[in-house]
Amino acid sequence: MKQFMKKKTTFIILGNLLAMCLVAFLLIAGIMLWLDKYTRQGEVVVVPEIKGFSIADAEKYLYLKNLQCIISDSNYVKDKPVGSVLDYTPSAGQKVKKGRVVYLTINRYSVPEYPVPDVTDNTSVRQAEARLLAAGFRLAMHEMINGERDWVYGVKYKGKKLTVGDKVPMEATLTLIVGNGTSRQDSSIEEGDVEEGEGYEYIPDE
């Protein structure tokens, strides 16, 4: 009987010890989790809204929020200030750690240039207009010259005739050089510039 009571007492003591250890473990784990969450709250910041900011203003504002920034890309938007922030990652409202790098996409400082489609002496005016407009260019009034009607003989930008491969600013205004339907030979005849030769006889004025 005494042996049984002794064993029972031992089990009770061991059970209490295990329960105390379990409670202590859970208490310590809870405190650690709370401390970790509490300390991390001081390390996390919310990314602010900086779209439209200049690079300098964006950099200063992010610095005050304990964030850094790097220009990672650029695009061109005509109605936005040059050098302004168009987009960024992480975006506004996201929670990040202090010191996180914010990657900026800015509006280019210069208008991008693009090659002009080759429409010289190989297409009609209607086809040339369609190709140039589709490429994002604008068109001024045509410059008419003697030649096959509605045939494109060249393209000009600011008075300069372009060659294949030339680049001009996006949305530049171009001028097509177009034939007016009068051949060069017909024009010279009308102006009296007839060369002597077979089929023509020069008769001086009396």
Automatic annotation (TrEMBL):
Stretch list, region Disordered: 182-206
InterPro entries assigned to the protein according to its UniProt record, in alphabetical order: PASTA_dom
Biased amino acid composition, Acidic residues: 188-206
Keyword vocabulary terms for this entry: Kinase, Membrane, Transferase, Transmembrane, Transmembrane helix
Name of the protein described by the UniProt record: Serine/threonine-protein kinase PK-1
CDD domains reported in the protein's UniProt record: PASTA_pknB
Record organism: termite gut metagenome
Pfam families in the record: PASTA
GO molecular function, one term: protein serine/threonine kinase activity
Domain PASTA: 41-108
Enzyme class: transferase
SUPFAM superfamilies in alphabetical order: Penicillin-binding protein 2x (pbp-2x), c-terminal domain (SSF54184)
Segments traversing the membrane: 12-35
